C-alpha cells in the first residue's frame, strides 16, 4: 500500500487539528487552575475578614468584662493589647508551619491532579 499525496495531506490536516485541540485543552486547564486558585483566595479573604470582625467584637466584649472584673477599663485594654500582641507573635513565629504547608498542599493538588484520559 502506497500513500498518495491526498493521504499525506489528510494526515497532516489531522495532526494540525490534534495540535490545535491540545492547545485549546491546555488553555482550558490553565483557566481552570487560575479560577480554582482565585476562588480559594477569595474564599479565604472573605473568611479572614469575617473572622477578624468576630474576633474584634469578642475582644471588645472581653475587654469590657475584664474591666468590670478588675475595676479598671484602662488596665483591661492594656491586658487585652498584650494578649493580642502575644497571639500575633505566635502566629508570626509559626507562619511557615501554618500558612506554608496550607499553600503547598493547595498548589500541589492543583498542579499534580490526575490527568484526564483523552482517549475515550
Describe this structure in words.
There is one protein chain. The chain is built from three helices and no strands. With 120 residues, the chain is mainly α. Helices cover 87% and strands 0% of the residues. The chain has helices at residues 5-70, 73-93, 95-111. The protein is rod-shaped. The chain has one domain (5-111).
Question: What are the defining features of this structure?
Answer:
single chain; mainly alpha; rod-shaped
The gist of it:
By secondary structure, this protein is an all-alpha fold. Helices cover 87% and strands 0% of the residues.
Unreliable spans are: none
Helix content: over 70%
Give the overall average pLDDT.
Answer: 82
Which percent band covers the strand fraction? under 5%
Number of strands: 0
What is the number of helical segments per DSSP (H or I, 4+ residues)? 3
Rg on CA atoms, Å: 29 Å
Classification by helices and strands? mainly alpha
What's the overall geometry?
A: rod-shaped
Amino acid at each position: 500500500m502506497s500513500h498518495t499525496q491526498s493521504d499525506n495531506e489528510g494526515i497532516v490536516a489531522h495532526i494540525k487539528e490534534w495540535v490545535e485541540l491540545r492547545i485549546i485543552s491546555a488553555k482550558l486547564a490553565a483557566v481552570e487552575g487560575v479560577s480554582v486558585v482565585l476562588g480559594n483566595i477569595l474564599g479565604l479573604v472573605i473568611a479572614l475578614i469575617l473572622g477578624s470582625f468576630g474576633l474584634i467584637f469578642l475582644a471588645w466584649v472581653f475587654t469590657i468584662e475584664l474591666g468590670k472584673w478588675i475595676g479598671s477599663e484602662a488596665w483591661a485594654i492594656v491586658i487585652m493589647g498584650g494578649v493580642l500582641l502575644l497571639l500575633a507573635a505566635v502566629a508570626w513565629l509559626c507562619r511557615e508551619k501554618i500558612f506554608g504547608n496550607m499553600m503547598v498542599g493547595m498548589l500541589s493538588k492543583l498542579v499534580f491532579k490526575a490527568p484526564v484520559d483523552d482517549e475515550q
